[in-house]
Design a protein that fits this description.
This protein has 502 residues and is mainly α. The chain is 78% helix and 0% strand. The chain folds into 2 domains: 10-215, no CATH class; 234-496, no CATH class. It has helices spanning 7-10, 19-54, 56-78, 81-91, 96-121, 129-139, 142-146, 150-155, 160-180, 189-211, 222-256, 259-275, 277-296, 298-323, 327-335, 343-368, 374-397, 399-418, 427-430, 434-450, 455-472, 478-489. It is globular and about 55 Å long.
Length: 502
């Protein structure tokens, strides 16, 4: 590992402050992202509910197929550049304007190429003509997405601007959908609305960018392009591999069993994604702080990593301690009695989510330390593990076997991300996760013992025992509660400077 970079090396635009200041920034950023995500999700739910009723199942399915194809175009269009841009902006705040110009220029070129590919291949996909037309219109949005500058707000840790853009875009989508989509014949207006709202979001984000002292400009320098792509391609490969190895489970299940079994697996996966939202928002808030701190002080970065492991372990094991006793109730409540057989699948997926909640800290560390190649290597290792386990377990265990393959794959990824680091970034950083893990184990035992008295008793006792265990093992202290109150009280107090100090 290269020698630590000093505060002097990092430049005059950046200073090292107490770790509590970093934690305060993370708390405020997390709050902003949470508000933006919850607001946009609630509005998006209303939009989708209206659409489902207006364009009928066939139209809704056509939009879904086109969106699935767009996933791959979007991965290649971004190619991991937004993550690299956040890191470079956080570590070199004095170079953000140049970074905006070069990253935006490169993203625009890639997006234009992906748009052309999307328009060309749409006619050859095994979809209905309606889905093909929808995909063609969606593809037109790729160059617009390339102009988005939300990564700048992450890099300078002003994520309340991201929340503003998210909620505004969701409201515009709902309003235009209510005004323009009245029946199944209007299905092509759905992607057109998406393109228009995307342009609106870009215009708003560019205006907000001006408020923090930057401008959206374009610079086409192929030397810079090669440098950016050399760093971002491993992350693009990782995103593509994750998408493929998640989807392969659906394909194997459908081939070996039936669409009904795929439906059980899909229902459990969707519910797990919703419950995992909190720790993914936390990572979006935490990552820029870790990246910036790693550039300036490796010991402080190690300390922040340990704190982050503690926080994400509390999230992950808390989801497990409270969610496992209530799996049957949650599945029936959300999807209905017909999906009761998804209960054990959901339980295994919650365990996978708990592993990811903690292990992803080292993926963020790899990006901060310019060791992003660890991410695709670990993903490849996990994908191979998933294929082997699915090959052995899907036939006898069905959807539970597929979920088990995913769990063991996430454990393999965690080990591959964790082992290459020195002691201060490995064992020492992992130690704070032991308290939440022990509290979770005790809570689940007590919840299981109370299970015969009903789901409410089991879930309630498990939740209380988990919180008590966190205090007992020192995972949560009075200082944490005071810090949380302080962060909430200062939530709407924003620093005046363009680049916050940590």
């Amino acid at each position: 590992m290269p020698p630590a970079i000093t505060e002097k090396d990092a430049g005059a635009d950046f200073s090292v402050g107490p770790l509590s200041a970093v934690a305060g920034n993370i708390a405020r950023n997390f709050g902003s992202l949470l508000v933006g995500r919850l607001g946009s999700q609630l509005i998006g739910f209303a939009t989708n509910a209206y659409l489902a009723r207006r364009i009928a199942p066939a139209g809704y399915g056509a939009v879904g197929l086109a969106q699935a194809a767009m996933t791959y175009l979007t991965i290649f269009s971004d190619s991991g550049l937004s993550t690299i841009a956040v890191r470079e902006g956080a570590q070199h705040p004095g170079k953000i304007q140049d970074l905006i110009s070069s990253i935006s220029g490169l993203r625009l070129l890639l997006a234009t190429g992906c748009m052309i590919v999307g328009l060309a291949v749409a006619g050859f996909l095994p979809y209905s003509e309606s889905s093909r037309q929808i995909l063609r219109i969606f593809a037109l949005s790729l160059p617009i997405q390339a102009l988005a500058v939300d990564w700048v707000f992450r890099a300078i840790q002003k994520m309340h601007y991201m929340a503003i853009v998210q909620v505004t875009s969701s409201l515009a989508t709902l309003a235009l959908t209510l005004a323009l989509v009245r029946g199944a014949g209007h299905v092509l207006r759905v992607p057109a609305i998406a393109v228009g709202v995307g342009a609106l979001g870009v215009a708003l984000s560019v205006q907000l960018l001006r408020q923090v002292g930057y401008r959206l400009r374009f610079q086409f320098g192929f030397g810079a392009f090669r440098r950016h792509l050399a760093q971002s391609i491993p992350l693009c490969a990782s995103s593509l591999a994750i998408t493929l190895y998640i989807q392969v489970n659906y394909l194997i299940l459908g081939k070996v069993h039936s669409e009904a079994v795929v439906g059980l697996y899909s229902a459990a996966a969707r519910l797990t994604v919703v419950l995992s939202t909190v720790h993914w928002l936390y990572y979006a808030a935490m990552a820029p702080g870790l990246m910036a701190l790693y550039q300036v002080s490796r010991p402080k970065a190690a300390a922040l990593l340990g704190q982050s492991v503690r926080v994400t372990a509390i999230f992950g094991f808390g989801m497990l301690a409270i969610g496992l006793p209530a799996t049957r109730l949650l599945v029936r409540l959300v999807f209905g009695p017909a999906f009761t057989d998804a209960t054990p699948v959901f339980g295994v997926m919650l365990a996978s989510a708990a592993v990811v909640a903690v292990s992803h800290n080292w993926a963020q560390l790899a990006v901060a330390a310019h060791r992003e190649r660890l991410v695709p290597k670990s993903t490849l290792f996990g994908g191979l593990m998933n294929l082997v386990v699915c090959g052995l377990l899907i036939r006898p265990l069905g959807a539970v076997g597929a979920a088990t393959g995913n769990l063991l794959a996430e454990i393999a990824v965690a080990l591959a991300l964790f082992l290459p680091w020195p002691a201060e970034l490995r064992g020492c950083a992992l130690r704070p996760a032991f308290g939440p893990a022990a509290a979770c184990a005790i809570a689940l035992l007590l919840g299981r013992a109370a299970g015969p008295r009903g789901v409410a008793w089991g879930t309630g006792l498990s939740a209380v025992a988990y919180v008590a265990g966190l205090f007992l093992f020192g995972s949560i202290t009075k200082n944490d509660l005071q810090a949380a109150r302080s962060a909430l009280s200062s939530f709407f107090v924003r620093p005046a400077q363009g680049v916050p100090h940590v």
